[in-house]
From TrEMBL:
It comes from Aegilops tauschii subsp. strangulata. Residues 3-103 form the HIRAN domain. It comes from the Eukaryota. The keyword Plastid does not apply. GO terms for molecular function: hydrolase activity, acting on acid anhydrides, in phosphorus-containing anhydrides; nucleic acid binding; zinc ion binding. It holds the Pfam family HIRAN. SMART domains: HIRAN (SM00910). Gene3D superfamilies: 3.30.70.2330. This is HIRAN domain-containing protein.
């Protein structure tokens, strides 16, 4: 179930050799043993190379939700143009982090995000429709239809 998305930043880009291309889907990897921050969430490109971390303010909220499996999955969107470390701001990159939870956990996830001061843009919000998030929602619906078709064939 798509709960919504939060806007954050990928930071520390200059410290890693991984790069991101526009439209690429980076993944999030929890790093609870990170010596600098036990809430650290690394960002890896589609080739598995680390490109940075989610900024601390957001990681502090998301880490316990990921660790407890209240957030079952994430989907990260980065700006559509190719990102280059030779660009103007190679220290950070804005991103949208889409949060997926089981329906029973959705209210808990919403409450945790709201209590933290982060802004959760849910699928009914006007900004959701104006962002690239509508693509995520449509891909999720298509994926659900594919699974439904598979079960219909098996059943």
């Amino acid at each position: 179930y798509l709960v919504g998305f939060v806007v954050s930043k990928i930071v520390g880009l200059k410290h890693y050799s991984g790069t991101l291309s526009g439209g690429e889907r980076p993944s999030l990897v929890r790093e609870p043993l990170n010596p600098f921050d036990t809430n650290a969430i690394a960002v890896h490109n589609s080739r598995g190379r680390q490109v940075g971390h989610i900024e601390g303010r957001t990681a502090k909220v998301l880490a316990p939700l990921l660790d407890s499996l209240l957030v079952a999955n994430t989907h990260v969107l980065v700006p559509g143009s190719r990102f280059s470390k030779a660009g103007n701001n190679f220290y950070q990159l804005p991103c949208q982090i889409h949060l997926f939870a089981r329906p029973a956990a959705a209210a808990i996830v919403r409450e945790a995000i709201d209590d933290s001061g982060l802004v959760l843009i849910d699928p009914n919000h006007i900004e959701f429709a104006l962002s690239q998030s509508a693509i995520v929602q449509e891909q999720t619906k298509k994926s659900d239809r594919d699974v439904d078709k598979l079960f219909a064939r098996v059943g």
